Amino acid sequence: MMNTPDVIGPVNLGNPVEFSINDLARHVIRMTGSASKIVYHPLAQDDPERRKPDITLAGRVLNGWAPVVPLEQGLQHTIAYFKSLDFSRYRPPTDMYGPPPTEVGGVVQV
After folding, report:
1. In angstroms, rounded to a whole number, what is the distance separating the alpha carbons of residues 24 and 14?
2. Any residues with CB less than 8 A from the CB of 90 and at least 6 apart, and which?
3. How many angstroms separate the Cα of 6 from the Cα of each of 11, 12, 60, 64, 91?
4. Model confidence pLDDT, tens digit, residues 37-63
5. Are 28 and 82 in contact (CB under 8 A)?
6. Residue 30: enclosing H or E segment and its boundaries?
7. pTM confidence score
8. Pairing with 22, which of 15, 49, 71, 97 sits 20 to 30 Å away (CA)?
9. What pLDDT, in 10s, does the model give residues 22-41?
C-alpha cells in the first residue's frame, strides 16, 4: 500500500459496525468472567464521541477487503490468545502514564 501512488493519508482498517467502548468493555467482562468494574472519566476535549471507520479506501486499494470476523468471535480468539501466554516471561508494564487516579472526598483526582 505504501507504494501505491494514489493512496494519500491513512487507510482505515476496522469494522464499520459501530459500538461504544462501554459496549466493548461489557463484552470483555462478560466473556472473561472478570470482576472488573467500569470506571468513567471525562473525555479529552478532542476525543471523538463516535468511532465508525470509513473503510471504503481499504476496500478499493486492498482488492475488495472487508472485515469478516464478528466482534464476539474476534474477542473469543483474542481472549484465548492472552490466556495462552506465559506472563512470567514478560516484564511488568512501566508506569509511563503516572500514578493511577485516587479518590479524595468522593472526587476522583487524575
Report:
1. 14
2. none
3. 12, 15, 11, 16, 42
4. 999 988 888 887 777 888 998 998 888
5. no
6. helix 21-32
7. 0.67
8. 97
9. 999 999 999 999 999 999 98
